[in-house]
Design brief:
about 140 residues, alpha/beta, 5-stranded parallel β-sheet, 5 helices, 5 strands, about 25% strand, globular
């Protein structure tokens, strides 16, 4: 089976950088391979009033995510012309990534083993949840 569509989760961490390197190694030899880089902007569960007050902060977080994705794309020069960036929001990054995998037609998911989540102890490991919830192969970069 040829791997033609790869999803890579990025968050600015060392693990995400290793995932980028691995994805580039997988995609580079295959000129048909396409890579999507995704960043999930984590948003808390809020009521309507809180959400209205949170909008400016969310806009700032989305802008930061776009900057992070642009930097990530620069780290894979060998495949940059076959790479797109995606930014999504959600209360649970692993769930949002799994939803994207399900609807995106990916052949492979590449993710770092350790991200930047300050609430990892509360949410659990994103890579572990993606590994167990994904319908496609998951490559975890250590």
């Amino acid at each position: 089976m040829a791997i033609k569509k790869i999803l890579v989760a990025v968050d600015g961490s060392e693990g995400a950088d290793r995932a980028l390197e691995l994805a580039q190694e997988v995609a580079e030899p295959n000129a048909e391979a396409h890579v999507d880089l995704v960043y999930v902007v984590p948003i808390p569960l809020l009521d309507d009033n809180q959400a209205a007050n949170f909008k400016s902060i969310l806009d700032m977080m989305v802008a930061d995510g776009k900057d992070l994705l642009a930097e990530a794309k620069e780290k894979v020069p060998a495949i940059a012309d076959r790479t797109d960036t995606l930014i999504i929001t959600g209360t649970n990054p692993a769930t949002e990534i799994i939803k994207l995998i399900d609807k995106g037609g990916y052949d492979l998911m590449v993710i770092g083993s350790r991200g930047l989540s300050g609430i990892k102890a509360y949410l659990g490991s994103v890579s572990h949840k993606v590994l167990n919830g994904s319908k496609v192969s998951v490559l975890i970069a250590k």
